[in-house]
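Q: Please design a sequence for this.
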């Protein structure tokens, strides 16, 4: 169903059976980060974070729950109400964030290797993302002393002005597909404004958030300003979303979970919530397009990051005059994509994040076939055999191109979050 037949399948099978490359990094931090210190969970529980290539355990990470969220929020509240961070000049906060960016740059290779190991994304992609995070932190640092109020015209002998102040304790819940950019988007602006933060990373990818947060404290962040609580959504995430002493919440993840987060925030202290949820973005190819260029752009728009991207161009619409040509060339490009170990040079695509996501993608593909879609880049009987070739790559998906005409299928409407390109015809 997913893997091409013949020689390409054989080569893929060989790659999947190879011994995984040992990541050039060690796991240093696996505890909760509360009040500037690494501590065990109150319950003493841990959970396993797994290598997506093999399903083997990378590390046992402290499992935070509601009690740990309470401890973290209390530390953040004290740091905000009594600590120096909100009372520093904006220039002083800026200097801390700039020092942090410098440390990110110095540890770029280490952080990137840990990110690739924990998430399954190609190491070369992780290198680019960490450099982006460094730039993001410098960008946010630059905003620290440029947050200005307004003077407002008023009738009569009055003077009116607005003053922007930090909102207080900011909660952040981030997903597993881009752990570090999401970290920067949640933590950077909040710290630049003078807020304190409680962050819950995804349970699939908690390791880099702990590592870079340690660097942030090395840069001079006062105790309690940033707290990191790895754990599960229904426990740690729900506790953070419903906490009465959290003043603002930012969440990135699925639409379904976003509804739950918003409901919990509403039913608690009506804290404002920023949601960045799933998507099903169209990629439209008109009849006068350069087909070869369009194929390459559409390919990148969908298959980038194993298709695990909320802004993926996951609905490809192609004009009927060039539809057949586009489908054939899209199929050929997909078949050439290099799928394998994220640490192997030249790998374009690594494994899906875990078996749960892997099986979800398979269900969508099955649904599409049953609804009348045509599989263009694989044989129907090859998926099961390929999946069981080797425990070293149990979650490795070969990219798939699907050719169909009806846009009422689930694969055309739902966010698949995987390397499945759906191509629809329009007039």
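A: Design:
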């Amino acid at each position: 169903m997913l893997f091409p037949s013949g020689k390409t399948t054989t080569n893929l099978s060989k790659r999947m059976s190879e011994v995984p490359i040992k990541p050039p990094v060690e796991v240093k931090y696996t505890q909760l980060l509360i009040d500037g210190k690494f501590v065990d969970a109150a319950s003493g529980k841990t959970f396993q974070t797994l290598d997506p290539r093999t399903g083997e355990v990378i590390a046992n990470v402290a499992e935070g729950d509601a009690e740990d969220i309470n401890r973290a929020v209390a530390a953040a509240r004290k740091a905000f109400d009594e600590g120096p961070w909100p009372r520093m000049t904006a220039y002083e906060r800026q200097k801390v964030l700039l020092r942090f960016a410098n440390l990110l740059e110095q540890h770029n290779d280490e952080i990137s290797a840990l990110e690739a190991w924990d998430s399954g994304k190609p190491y070369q992609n992780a290198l680019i993302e960490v450099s982006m995070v460094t730039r993001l932190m410098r960008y946010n640092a630059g905003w620290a002393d440029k947050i200005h109020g307004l003077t407002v015209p008023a009738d009569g002998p009055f003077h009116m002005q607005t003053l922007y102040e930090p909102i207080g304790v900011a909660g952040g819940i981030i997903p597993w597909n881009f752990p570090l950019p999401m970290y920067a988007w949640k933590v950077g602006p909040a710290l630049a404004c003078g807020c304190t933060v409680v962050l819950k990373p995804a349970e699939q990818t908690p390791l880099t958030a702990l590592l870079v947060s340690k660097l942030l404290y090395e840069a001079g962040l006062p105790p309690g300003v940033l707290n990191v609580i790895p754990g599960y959504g229904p426990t740690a995430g729900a506790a953070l979303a419903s906490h009465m002493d959290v003043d603002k919440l930012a969440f990135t993840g699925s639409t379904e979970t976003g509804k739950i987060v918003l409901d919990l925030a509403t039913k608690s202290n009506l804290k404002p919530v920023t949601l960045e949820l799933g998507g099903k973005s169209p990629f439209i190819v008109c009849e006068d397009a350069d087909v070869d260029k369009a194929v390459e752009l559409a390919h990148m728009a969908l298959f980038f990051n194993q298709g695990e991207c909320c802004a993926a161009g996951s609905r490809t619409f192609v004009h009927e005059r060039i539809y057949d040509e586009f489908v054939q060339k899209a199929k050929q490009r997909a078949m050439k994509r290099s799928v394998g170990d994220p640490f192997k040079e030249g790998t374009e695509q690594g494994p899906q994040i875990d078996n749960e996501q892997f099986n979800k993608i398979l269900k969508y593909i099955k649904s599409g076939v049953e609804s009348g879609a045509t599989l263009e880049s694989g044989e129907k009987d090859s998926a099961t055999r390929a999946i069981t070739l080797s425990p070293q790559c149990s979650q490795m998906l070969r990219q798939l191109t699907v050719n169909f005409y009806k846009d009422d299928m689930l694969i055309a409407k739902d966010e698949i979050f995987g390397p499945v390109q759906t191509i629809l015809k329009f007039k």
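Q: Thanks. Anything notable?
A: The chain is about 40% helix and 15% strand. The longest helix spans residues 123-143.
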